[in-house]
Hints:
The protein has helices at residues 2-6, 15-28, 32-42, 58-74, 91-102, 116-126, 160-166, 207-210, 228-240, 252-261, 271-278, 282-287, 305-315, 327-345, and strands at residues 47-50, 55-57, 82-86, 106-110, 130-133, 145-148, 158-159, 181-187, 193-199, 218-221, 243-246, 266-270, 295-299, 319-321, 324-325. By secondary structure, the protein is α/β, with parallel strands linked by helices.
Amino acid sequence: MGREVRGGALLRWRPAGALQLARAVRRWGATAAAACEAAALAFPERTAILDDHAAFTFAQLNERSAALSGALQQRGVGPGSTIAVRAGNHHWLVETLIAAARVQANVALLDPRSDAHHLSRIASREHLRALILDPEPSGARRGPVMFAAGAGPACPPARLDELIDGAAAQPAGVKGEIAAHVILSEPSPQGGWLYHRRPATLTAPSAHRAIPLRPRQRTMICAPLCSRWGHFHLMLGLRFGSTLVLSEQFDPLHALAALAEHRVSVLALRAEMLAAIVGLPAATLSWYPTPELRVIALGGPSLPGEVAIPAMRHFGPVLYTRRGPAMITLQSLSLARHLEGSVAAA
Length: 346
Protein backbone atom coordinates (compact mmCIF):
# COMPACT_ATOMS: atom_id res chain seq x y z
CA MET A 1 0.00 0.00 0.00
CA GLY A 2 2.80 2.42 0.90
CA ARG A 3 4.40 1.96 -2.51
CA GLU A 4 1.11 2.83 -4.20
CA VAL A 5 0.74 6.07 -2.23
CA ARG A 6 4.33 7.08 -2.95
CA GLY A 7 3.87 6.16 -6.63
CA GLY A 8 0.80 8.36 -6.91
CA ALA A 9 -1.82 5.64 -7.43
CA LEU A 10 -4.09 7.05 -4.72
CA LEU A 11 -3.16 10.71 -5.03
CA ARG A 12 -4.64 10.93 -8.55
CA TRP A 13 -8.07 9.73 -7.41
CA ARG A 14 -10.81 11.81 -5.84
CA PRO A 15 -11.20 11.19 -2.07
CA ALA A 16 -14.15 8.78 -2.41
CA GLY A 17 -12.46 6.89 -5.24
CA ALA A 18 -9.15 6.78 -3.34
CA LEU A 19 -10.93 5.17 -0.38
CA GLN A 20 -12.47 2.55 -2.65
CA LEU A 21 -9.10 1.88 -4.27
CA ALA A 22 -7.50 1.51 -0.83
CA ARG A 23 -10.13 -1.06 0.13
CA ALA A 24 -9.64 -2.92 -3.14
CA VAL A 25 -5.86 -2.95 -2.64
CA ARG A 26 -6.38 -4.39 0.81
CA ARG A 27 -8.51 -7.16 -0.67
CA TRP A 28 -6.64 -7.98 -3.89
CA GLY A 29 -3.19 -6.56 -3.29
CA ALA A 30 -1.77 -3.73 -5.40
CA THR A 31 -2.85 -5.33 -8.67
CA ALA A 32 -4.89 -4.66 -11.79
CA ALA A 33 -7.76 -6.47 -10.06
CA ALA A 34 -7.79 -3.81 -7.35
CA ALA A 35 -7.76 -0.95 -9.88
CA CYS A 36 -10.60 -2.51 -11.89
CA GLU A 37 -12.77 -3.14 -8.84
CA ALA A 38 -12.20 0.37 -7.46
CA ALA A 39 -13.05 1.94 -10.84
CA ALA A 40 -16.18 -0.21 -11.07
CA LEU A 41 -17.32 1.13 -7.70
CA ALA A 42 -16.31 4.76 -8.33
CA PHE A 43 -17.63 5.19 -11.89
CA PRO A 44 -19.31 1.95 -13.03
CA GLU A 45 -20.84 3.40 -16.21
CA ARG A 46 -17.59 4.89 -17.51
CA THR A 47 -16.24 3.07 -20.57
CA ALA A 48 -13.21 0.97 -19.66
CA ILE A 49 -12.30 -0.60 -23.02
CA LEU A 50 -13.09 0.09 -26.66
CA ASP A 51 -11.74 -2.49 -29.09
CA ASP A 52 -12.52 -4.12 -32.43
CA HIS A 53 -15.18 -6.34 -30.87
CA ALA A 54 -17.12 -4.43 -28.22
CA ALA A 55 -17.16 -1.68 -25.62
CA PHE A 56 -17.27 -2.46 -21.90
CA THR A 57 -17.83 -0.28 -18.86
CA PHE A 58 -15.74 -0.71 -15.73
CA ALA A 59 -18.65 -2.50 -14.06
CA GLN A 60 -18.86 -4.97 -16.96
CA LEU A 61 -15.08 -5.43 -17.09
CA ASN A 62 -14.98 -6.15 -13.36
CA GLU A 63 -17.89 -8.60 -13.59
CA ARG A 64 -16.42 -10.47 -16.57
CA SER A 65 -12.91 -10.70 -15.10
CA ALA A 66 -14.34 -11.91 -11.76
CA ALA A 67 -16.24 -14.66 -13.58
CA LEU A 68 -13.11 -15.60 -15.54
CA SER A 69 -11.08 -15.82 -12.33
CA GLY A 70 -13.57 -18.39 -11.05
CA ALA A 71 -13.20 -20.37 -14.26
CA LEU A 72 -9.41 -20.26 -13.94
CA GLN A 73 -9.61 -21.54 -10.39
CA GLN A 74 -11.88 -24.40 -11.49
CA ARG A 75 -9.17 -25.40 -14.00
CA GLY A 76 -6.50 -25.58 -11.33
CA VAL A 77 -5.00 -22.11 -11.79
CA GLY A 78 -4.05 -20.64 -8.43
CA PRO A 79 -1.24 -18.91 -6.48
CA GLY A 80 2.13 -19.52 -8.09
CA SER A 81 0.81 -21.30 -11.19
CA THR A 82 1.39 -19.85 -14.66
CA ILE A 83 -0.77 -19.40 -17.74
CA ALA A 84 0.43 -18.25 -21.16
CA VAL A 85 -1.49 -15.86 -23.41
CA ARG A 86 -0.72 -15.40 -27.11
CA ALA A 87 -3.19 -12.79 -28.26
CA GLY A 88 -3.54 -9.38 -29.82
CA ASN A 89 -4.61 -6.17 -28.13
CA HIS A 90 -8.21 -6.79 -27.07
CA HIS A 91 -10.46 -6.93 -24.01
CA TRP A 92 -9.99 -10.69 -23.48
CA LEU A 93 -6.29 -10.18 -22.81
CA VAL A 94 -7.02 -7.44 -20.26
CA GLU A 95 -9.68 -9.58 -18.59
CA THR A 96 -7.20 -12.45 -18.33
CA LEU A 97 -4.62 -10.25 -16.60
CA ILE A 98 -7.20 -9.02 -14.09
CA ALA A 99 -8.57 -12.52 -13.51
CA ALA A 100 -5.08 -13.96 -12.98
CA ALA A 101 -4.33 -11.23 -10.42
CA ARG A 102 -7.41 -12.31 -8.46
CA VAL A 103 -6.06 -15.86 -8.10
CA GLN A 104 -2.38 -14.81 -7.72
CA ALA A 105 -1.33 -16.58 -10.93
CA ASN A 106 1.57 -15.65 -13.20
CA VAL A 107 0.83 -14.64 -16.78
CA ALA A 108 3.27 -15.08 -19.67
CA LEU A 109 2.30 -12.62 -22.41
CA LEU A 110 3.57 -13.93 -25.74
CA ASP A 111 3.98 -11.92 -28.90
CA PRO A 112 1.23 -12.81 -31.43
CA ARG A 113 4.02 -13.42 -33.97
CA SER A 114 5.61 -16.16 -31.85
CA ASP A 115 5.53 -19.66 -33.29
CA ALA A 116 4.89 -23.11 -31.86
CA HIS A 117 8.59 -23.57 -30.96
CA HIS A 118 8.53 -20.42 -28.84
CA LEU A 119 5.31 -21.56 -27.19
CA SER A 120 6.74 -25.00 -26.37
CA ARG A 121 9.83 -23.43 -24.79
CA ILE A 122 7.66 -21.27 -22.54
CA ALA A 123 5.45 -24.24 -21.66
CA SER A 124 8.39 -26.41 -20.58
CA ARG A 125 10.24 -23.63 -18.75
CA GLU A 126 7.27 -22.18 -16.83
CA HIS A 127 5.31 -25.44 -16.23
CA LEU A 128 2.11 -23.93 -17.60
CA ARG A 129 -1.32 -24.78 -16.25
CA ALA A 130 -3.21 -23.34 -19.23
CA LEU A 131 -2.77 -21.75 -22.65
CA ILE A 132 -4.95 -18.97 -24.06
CA LEU A 133 -4.54 -18.53 -27.80
CA ASP A 134 -6.19 -16.34 -30.41
CA PRO A 135 -7.77 -18.28 -33.28
CA GLU A 136 -6.02 -18.40 -36.61
CA PRO A 137 -6.50 -15.29 -38.78
CA SER A 138 -8.60 -17.33 -41.21
CA GLY A 139 -10.92 -18.52 -38.45
CA ALA A 140 -14.00 -16.89 -36.97
CA ARG A 141 -13.15 -13.96 -34.71
CA ARG A 142 -15.01 -15.17 -31.65
CA GLY A 143 -12.27 -14.62 -29.13
CA PRO A 144 -9.36 -16.67 -27.78
CA VAL A 145 -9.55 -20.29 -26.66
CA MET A 146 -8.21 -21.74 -23.41
CA PHE A 147 -6.38 -25.08 -23.59
CA ALA A 148 -5.13 -27.27 -20.78
CA ALA A 149 -1.33 -27.49 -20.53
CA GLY A 150 0.82 -30.37 -19.35
CA ALA A 151 0.91 -29.30 -15.71
CA GLY A 152 -2.80 -28.59 -15.48
CA PRO A 153 -5.88 -30.83 -15.13
CA ALA A 154 -7.34 -32.36 -18.26
CA CYS A 155 -10.04 -29.97 -19.48
CA PRO A 156 -11.58 -29.60 -22.93
CA PRO A 157 -10.73 -26.45 -24.90
CA ALA A 158 -13.20 -23.61 -24.36
CA ARG A 159 -13.59 -20.05 -25.54
CA LEU A 160 -13.15 -17.39 -22.90
CA ASP A 161 -16.67 -16.06 -23.46
CA GLU A 162 -18.05 -19.54 -22.76
CA LEU A 163 -16.03 -19.77 -19.55
CA ILE A 164 -17.17 -16.31 -18.46
CA ASP A 165 -20.82 -17.08 -19.16
CA GLY A 166 -20.67 -20.44 -17.40
CA ALA A 167 -18.59 -19.51 -14.35
CA ALA A 168 -20.22 -19.69 -10.94
CA ALA A 169 -17.75 -19.45 -8.07
CA GLN A 170 -15.41 -16.50 -7.63
CA PRO A 171 -12.17 -16.59 -5.62
CA ALA A 172 -11.93 -14.93 -2.25
CA GLY A 173 -9.61 -12.00 -1.62
CA VAL A 174 -5.91 -12.58 -1.04
CA LYS A 175 -3.93 -11.50 2.01
CA GLY A 176 -0.74 -9.48 1.89
CA GLU A 177 1.42 -8.60 -1.12
CA ILE A 178 0.73 -10.55 -4.28
CA ALA A 179 3.55 -12.84 -5.40
CA ALA A 180 2.52 -13.25 -9.03
CA HIS A 181 4.43 -11.93 -12.05
CA VAL A 182 3.78 -10.90 -15.63
CA ILE A 183 6.35 -12.31 -18.06
CA LEU A 184 6.72 -10.14 -21.15
CA SER A 185 8.05 -11.60 -24.39
CA GLU A 186 9.67 -9.48 -27.11
CA PRO A 187 11.76 -10.26 -30.22
CA SER A 188 15.50 -9.88 -29.66
CA PRO A 189 17.56 -7.84 -32.18
CA GLN A 190 20.01 -10.75 -32.28
CA GLY A 191 17.25 -13.26 -32.98
CA GLY A 192 15.20 -15.28 -30.57
CA TRP A 193 13.18 -13.74 -27.74
CA LEU A 194 13.75 -11.60 -24.67
CA TYR A 195 11.82 -12.26 -21.46
CA HIS A 196 11.11 -9.57 -18.87
CA ARG A 197 9.62 -10.72 -15.57
CA ARG A 198 7.77 -7.97 -13.68
CA PRO A 199 5.66 -8.00 -10.50
CA ALA A 200 1.97 -8.09 -11.40
CA THR A 201 1.29 -4.94 -9.38
CA LEU A 202 0.11 -1.42 -10.10
CA THR A 203 3.49 0.09 -9.29
CA ALA A 204 4.79 1.34 -12.65
CA PRO A 205 8.21 2.69 -13.66
CA SER A 206 8.96 6.36 -13.03
CA ALA A 207 8.33 7.17 -16.70
CA HIS A 208 4.81 8.37 -15.87
CA ARG A 209 6.36 11.30 -13.98
CA ALA A 210 8.13 12.41 -17.16
CA ILE A 211 4.96 12.24 -19.28
CA PRO A 212 1.94 14.47 -18.43
CA LEU A 213 -0.62 11.71 -18.04
CA ARG A 214 -3.85 12.42 -16.22
CA PRO A 215 -6.56 10.15 -14.79
CA ARG A 216 -9.81 9.30 -16.55
CA GLN A 217 -8.69 10.18 -20.06
CA ARG A 218 -8.81 8.21 -23.32
CA THR A 219 -5.63 6.26 -24.05
CA MET A 220 -5.05 4.43 -27.32
CA ILE A 221 -2.41 1.69 -27.06
CA CYS A 222 -0.98 0.61 -30.41
CA ALA A 223 2.17 -0.95 -28.94
CA PRO A 224 1.63 -4.68 -28.30
CA LEU A 225 0.40 -5.32 -24.77
CA CYS A 226 3.02 -8.10 -24.51
CA SER A 227 5.79 -5.49 -24.86
CA ARG A 228 7.16 -3.40 -22.00
CA TRP A 229 5.82 -0.13 -23.43
CA GLY A 230 2.36 -1.48 -24.18
CA HIS A 231 2.07 -3.24 -20.82
CA PHE A 232 3.26 -0.12 -18.99
CA HIS A 233 0.47 1.99 -20.49
CA LEU A 234 -2.10 -0.75 -19.90
CA MET A 235 -1.29 -0.91 -16.18
CA LEU A 236 -1.12 2.87 -15.94
CA GLY A 237 -4.46 3.23 -17.72
CA LEU A 238 -6.14 0.79 -15.33
CA ARG A 239 -4.57 2.56 -12.37
CA PHE A 240 -5.80 5.96 -13.56
CA GLY A 241 -9.29 4.73 -14.51
CA SER A 242 -8.76 5.70 -18.15
CA THR A 243 -10.67 4.46 -21.18
CA LEU A 244 -8.42 2.12 -23.19
CA VAL A 245 -8.77 2.07 -26.98
CA LEU A 246 -7.30 -1.14 -28.43
CA SER A 247 -6.99 -2.84 -31.82
CA GLU A 248 -5.65 -6.32 -32.57
CA GLN A 249 -3.78 -5.35 -35.75
CA PHE A 250 -1.99 -2.06 -36.26
CA ASP A 251 -3.04 -0.23 -39.40
CA PRO A 252 -1.97 3.45 -39.76
CA LEU A 253 -5.20 4.61 -41.40
CA HIS A 254 -7.36 2.72 -38.88
CA ALA A 255 -5.31 4.17 -36.02
CA LEU A 256 -5.65 7.71 -37.34
CA ALA A 257 -9.41 7.31 -37.77
CA ALA A 258 -9.73 5.90 -34.25
CA LEU A 259 -7.81 8.87 -32.82
CA ALA A 260 -10.38 11.22 -34.32
CA GLU A 261 -13.48 9.10 -33.71
CA HIS A 262 -12.80 8.34 -30.04
CA ARG A 263 -11.26 11.75 -29.24
CA VAL A 264 -8.11 10.16 -27.85
CA SER A 265 -5.92 12.18 -25.46
CA VAL A 266 -2.92 9.83 -25.22
CA LEU A 267 -1.42 7.68 -27.97
CA ALA A 268 1.13 5.02 -26.94
CA LEU A 269 3.07 3.40 -29.77
CA ARG A 270 6.47 2.71 -31.30
CA ALA A 271 8.44 5.05 -33.52
CA GLU A 272 7.90 2.90 -36.64
CA MET A 273 4.14 3.00 -36.04
CA LEU A 274 4.18 6.80 -35.79
CA ALA A 275 6.25 6.91 -38.98
CA ALA A 276 3.55 4.89 -40.77
CA ILE A 277 0.84 7.30 -39.59
CA VAL A 278 2.62 10.51 -40.57
CA GLY A 279 3.60 8.84 -43.86
CA LEU A 280 -0.04 8.84 -44.97
CA PRO A 281 -0.99 11.38 -47.67
CA ALA A 282 -1.44 14.94 -46.43
CA ALA A 283 -5.08 14.97 -47.55
CA THR A 284 -5.74 11.86 -45.45
CA LEU A 285 -4.06 13.37 -42.39
CA SER A 286 -6.09 16.56 -42.68
CA TRP A 287 -9.33 14.58 -43.02
CA TYR A 288 -9.00 13.26 -39.43
CA PRO A 289 -8.47 16.17 -36.99
CA THR A 290 -7.17 15.25 -33.54
CA PRO A 291 -7.49 18.40 -31.39
CA GLU A 292 -7.86 16.38 -28.14
CA LEU A 293 -4.51 14.61 -28.60
CA ARG A 294 -2.18 15.90 -25.88
CA VAL A 295 0.47 13.17 -25.59
CA ILE A 296 2.15 10.85 -28.07
CA ALA A 297 4.16 8.49 -25.87
CA LEU A 298 6.89 6.77 -27.85
CA GLY A 299 8.63 3.64 -26.71
CA GLY A 300 12.12 2.71 -27.83
CA PRO A 301 15.66 3.95 -27.26
CA SER A 302 15.67 6.77 -29.80
CA LEU A 303 13.40 9.09 -31.76
CA PRO A 304 14.62 9.60 -35.34
CA GLY A 305 14.38 13.15 -36.65
CA GLU A 306 12.82 11.98 -39.91
CA VAL A 307 9.89 10.69 -37.82
CA ALA A 308 9.74 13.40 -35.16
CA ILE A 309 9.77 16.45 -37.43
CA PRO A 310 6.79 15.53 -39.66
CA ALA A 311 4.92 14.24 -36.60
CA MET A 312 5.34 17.53 -34.76
CA ARG A 313 4.41 19.49 -37.85
CA HIS A 314 1.06 17.72 -37.93
CA PHE A 315 0.25 16.97 -34.28
CA GLY A 316 2.20 19.76 -32.57
CA PRO A 317 4.71 19.55 -29.68
CA VAL A 318 3.11 16.50 -28.07
CA LEU A 319 5.91 13.94 -28.46
CA TYR A 320 7.26 12.34 -25.28
CA THR A 321 9.64 9.51 -24.52
CA ARG A 322 10.11 7.78 -21.18
CA ARG A 323 12.58 10.55 -20.29
CA GLY A 324 10.15 13.39 -20.94
CA PRO A 325 9.39 15.87 -23.76
CA ALA A 326 11.29 15.46 -27.03
CA MET A 327 13.31 18.64 -26.50
CA ILE A 328 15.91 17.82 -29.13
CA THR A 329 13.08 17.26 -31.58
CA LEU A 330 11.64 20.68 -30.77
CA GLN A 331 14.99 22.27 -31.59
CA SER A 332 15.25 20.22 -34.78
CA LEU A 333 11.77 21.33 -35.81
CA SER A 334 12.63 24.98 -35.21
CA LEU A 335 15.82 24.59 -37.24
CA ALA A 336 13.93 22.82 -40.04
CA ARG A 337 11.37 25.61 -40.24
CA HIS A 338 14.13 28.23 -40.25
CA LEU A 339 15.89 26.45 -43.11
CA GLU A 340 12.63 26.11 -45.03
CA GLY A 341 12.02 29.85 -44.61
CA SER A 342 15.53 30.66 -45.83
CA VAL A 343 15.12 28.47 -48.90
CA ALA A 344 11.73 30.03 -49.69
CA ALA A 345 13.18 33.55 -49.35
CA ALA A 346 16.05 32.68 -51.67
